[in-house]
Design goal:
With 323 residues, the protein is of the alpha/beta class. Helices cover 46% and strands 14% of the residues.
């Protein structure tokens, strides 16, 4: 298993193929990205690669897969809309002891309650960290303080509590952004589209972390079994969604979001392809600023799970609030 000192030096590489104008090559155990004139744009040692994300259409050779296997990093192929198409080199999928414990676990509901509690606590932290709070934001914070996930006795009750907390949090936290409502994957407005993009990168980063230990990502604790849904990743992402929420608000305050970067098609907002790198960099930067915390959280969760520890020793992630 990877240790934290090893992980600190690892890099996530994001490559956007641009209609054969750029090329991905390997040379002397280095990943080389060249522009259309053959000039080296990026160069990374394979020894330092944690994951390679390729966004867009590409012809993938066996050399890439051989290098990924040799240096033990996953290759994730995403569409231009950031949908994960393929995933190569799952490094620890043979950890059958872990997977057997996943299917036999009797603590799933307790784990789910912990994850929802941390998600709501981080929503409260974001509101508490606002430099200037309007009356509606203060009221929302008080309402969140009154929500008690530990009172839930069934998964359905817990789901209702989580949904109620989100209905309180989003309108308050994004008050200055003409917030309507949260509608995942509908792309009804720019805010929802950007949240979807940010959450997608976060999802795949957390998924890459779980691959280190060999979790069965389809075996969730809160998000139950559903065909082709990686329910465990959906679960473990919950405490970290606040990273994306915080970045979106900061981007608005810093005027980094330009409506000209988007267009509408079939009643949905889309991000212009040439602008994808701009917003990817924005979200990925904040994810990578928390990469050690995410790594340690997944590591602690794995150890907690394998040792059958008490729920009181469950790992915790706490965001630092602020505009």
């Amino acid at each position: 298993m990877m240790s934290l000192p090893d992980f600190k030096y690892k890099q996530c590489i994001f490559y956007f193929p641009s209609d054969d104008k750029s090329k991905l090559r390997f040379r002397a155990d280095n990943i080389i990205i060249e522009d259309e004139e053959g000039k080296v744009v990026q160069q990374h040692s394979c020894h330092l690669v944690f994951a390679l994300f390729i966004i867009g259409n590409i012809t993938l050779t066996n050399v890439v897969l051989q290098k990924a296997k040799q240096f033990a990093f996953p290759v994730l192929l995403l569409s231009r809309n950031f949908r994960l198409d393929s995933y190569f080199n799952n490094r620890a999928e043979g950890n059958f002891l872990l997977r057997r414990k996943q299917y036999e676990s009797e603590q799933n509901f307790l784990i789910a309650r912990q994850l929802v509690t941390q998600k709501i606590n981080n929503q409260k932290s974001l509101l508490q960290g606002l430099r200037y709070r309007a009356a509606s934001e203060t009221e929302a914070m008080q309402e969140l303080n009154d929500i008690e996930p530990d009172s839930a006795q069934t998964a359905q009750e817990l789901m209702g509590i989580e949904g109620n907390a989100s209905k309180i949090f989003f309108p308050a936290y994004f008050r200055q952004m003409n917030w309507a409502r949260r509608e995942p994957r509908t792309k009804r407005d720019i805010n929802n589209l950007l949240l979807d993009i940010g959450y997608t990168y976060l999802f795949h980063f957390v998924e890459a972390m779980t691959a280190i230990y060999g979790f069965d990502v389809y075996c969730g604790v809160f998000h139950t079994f559903f065909y082709q849904r990686k329910s465990l990743v959906c679960d473990l992402v919950e405490p970290f969604r606040c990273i994306i929420d915080q970045r979106l608000r900061k981007a608005h305050n810093l005027k980094q979001i330009d409506e000209k970067d988007f267009f509408q098609a079939n009643n949905q907002y889309q991000l212009a392809y040439k602008q994808q790198g701009k917003y990817t960099k924005m979200f990925v930067k904040d994810i990578l600023e928390h990469k050690e915390e995410i790594f340690l959280y997944i590591q602690a969760y794995y150890r907690w799970f394998m040792k059958n520890k008490h729920i009181g020793e469950f790992p915790v992630f706490q965001i630092k609030g602020g505009d």
